[in-house]
Amino acid sequence: MTADQLQAIISAGLPCEHIALEGDGRHWYATIVSAAFEGQRLVGRQRLVYATLGNRMATDEVHALSMKTYTPAEWAQQAAQ
């Protein structure tokens, strides 16, 4: 899977203001900014992202996904630092 494909899958299931992906086709690191994360704890945010992937994790199409998740306000604070 390519970064563009993974980005399209996540974006189709989760409204995102920003997605950055790095990886080797199976192991991925993502930075995701979405208003859907408002009021969610870290685990809830990760569940939202994993839900967009469906069974792709179970079938090993995406072997590993590490992520940092931010609300738009949190992302703006990161940029200001």
Characteristic key phrases:
3-stranded mixed β-sheet, 40% helix, 3 helices, GMP Synthetase, Chain A, domain 3, alpha+beta, 81 residues, globular
What is the structure about, briefly put?
This protein has helices spanning 3-13, 42-53, 72-80; strands spanning 18-23, 27-33, 64-70. With 81 residues, it is an alpha+beta fold.
Topology:
Blueprint: H1 3-13, E1 18-23, E2 27-33, H2 42-53, E3 64-70, H3 72-80
Helix pairs in contact: 1-2
Protein name: BolA family transcriptional regulator
Family: Belongs to the BolA/IbaG family.
Pfam family, one: BolA
Model description:
The structure is a single chain. This protein has 81 residues and is an alpha+beta fold. The protein has one domain: BolA-like (GMP Synthetase, Chain A, domain 3). Helices cover 40% and strands 25% of the residues. The chain contains 3 helices and 3 strands; from the N terminus they run αββαβα. Strands 1-2-3 form a 3-stranded mixed β-sheet. β1 and β2 form a beta hairpin. α1 packs across α2. The radius of gyration is 12 Å and the shape is globular. The mean pLDDT is 93. InterPro entries: BolA, BolA-like_sf, BolA/IbaG_stress_morph_reg. This is BolA family transcriptional regulator. Belongs to the BolA/IbaG family. It comes from Comamonas terrigena. It holds the Pfam family BolA.
CATH class: Alpha Beta
Strand order of the largest sheet: 1-2-3
H/E element order: HEEHEH
Helix content: 25-40%
Would you identify the regions where 5 or more consecutive residues have pLDDT less than 50? none
CATH superfamily: BolA-like
Q: In angstroms, what is the radius of gyration?
A: 12 Å
State the helix count.
3
Overall pLDDT score: 93
Derived structural class: alpha+beta
Beta-strand content estimate: 15-25%
Sum up the overall morphology in one term. Answer: globular
- How many domains? The number is 1
CATH fold field value: GMP Synthetase, Chain A, domain 3
Largest sheet: 3 strands, mixed
Oligomeric grouping of the chains: single chain
Q: End-to-end distance, in Å? A: 33 Å
What is the strand tally?
Answer: 3
CATH architecture: 2-Layer Sandwich
